[in-house]
Amino acid sequence: MAVTVDLFRDFAQLIRDELNIDSSRDDLDVVRLFAWYDLRRLPMQNWNVHYSRELQENHFFINNKSYIEAIRNKAESGEDLVPHASHRVDDITEKDELLADWGIYHIHPGHGTRPRKSGFVDGAAELLFVLPRGKDLYFIDVLDHKSWTNFSLIEVIDNNWPFLLDPFRLKNVVGLSNEPTEEDLYKLRKNQINAFFRVGKSFFIGPGGGLASDGSASRAVLMSMNLKKLLDGYSKQLKEEEADFRRTVEERTETPLNVDTISLKLLQYDPRTGSGEIYEPSTATVIQFHF
Q1: Which of 134, 159, 259, 283 is most enclosed, with most CB atoms within 10 A?
Q2: Would the pTM count as exceeding 0.85?
Q3: Domain count within the chain
């Protein structure tokens, strides 16, 4: 009597099929790509939106308030904000150094006249920069497309919500031998190098977690490793608790499970909610799980 199951392998295959990822990539790399793909999308939830003082004093906000208010309304009502994202958001290999390094998203307000990809709002020079934390979405400021390393983004966060940066504020540091400029930071990011930096009187490490060696986010790498650990652990538990699983299936189907080896397959899994479904083919039983 035994159970054959590999939930992580199955999860990686589900991602390959959904995102059309080359089969030459190993399972961990596939899940890392998925984590980065998922990370680049703001979750659909009812956000609590906060405006910075600098945003409210910005001439763009004053003259185009309706566009920012429209995004706020969408965020607070749980609408999808992907149409305001980069039109390359579906490209699993697309880089976003600002998001990876500082955890800041850029949003197109939708006021422009430059058509983008179908399903996306029109583009323009100005972008709204936002920072998500839990159920809160902080609207930092509206700046142009050259603001990817603009220290004012961090400065505005520190001026309005310093507690958001406290975990990334370096303690007992009075100086750096080489303090990167915005131009330095741009070059460092292009070479996947993470750097400490100073804004005002404080020194910081990137509040987005930093860049991985391929230019994606270190958070995506950690997420993929944690998912492997989680799904491998549940696979092991299923193998060790074969008798309990067999009993559960038989009670649910009122049918003897007359196979020596129980073969299980992952049908679906949502890492955001921890919910998924496992399929047992001999009885055509679908088992829902959550962890």
Answers
A1: 283
A2: yes
A3: 2
